[in-house]
Design brief:
Blueprint: H1 3-28, H2 42-60, H3 80-101
Length: 104
């Protein structure tokens, strides 16, 4: 297992979580969700989800049978807070799963 791939994905997901948190704060301050300074496209979140899922599959087969993994859709219409919590849950799943399977 190449641990650097997992750390790379964790950096990606942390960056996306930071962007989503900044977007939430901007919306609270009155900015529109599609403001060019803060907007996040569904496909960007979906790409992070899929990269994590593919990473797990490459090293562990089909872990979705063991752990729930949410993949955002291209047309996601759920509240931003839901997307943020799902992304955090995916992050926690990959940390938990890899810690059970290896000793970093």
């Amino acid at each position: 297992m190449d641990v650097s791939e997992f750390y790379s994905w964790l950096s990606e997901v942390d960056a996306m979580i930071d962007r989503m948190e900044r977007l939430c704060e901007a919306i609270d301050r009155g900015y529109p969700a599609n403001s060019p300074d803060y907007a996040i496209e569904n496909r960007e979140v979906r790409e992070v989800d899929l990269a994590g899922l593919n990473l797990l599959r490459r090293y562990y087969g089909n872990p979705v049978n063991i752990f729930p993994w949410y993949v955002h859709t291209e047309t996601e219409c759920t509240p931003l807070s839901y997307s943020l919590s799902r992304l955090r849950r995916n992050r926690n799943v990959i940390i938990s799963f890899t810690q059970r399977r290896s000793h970093w």
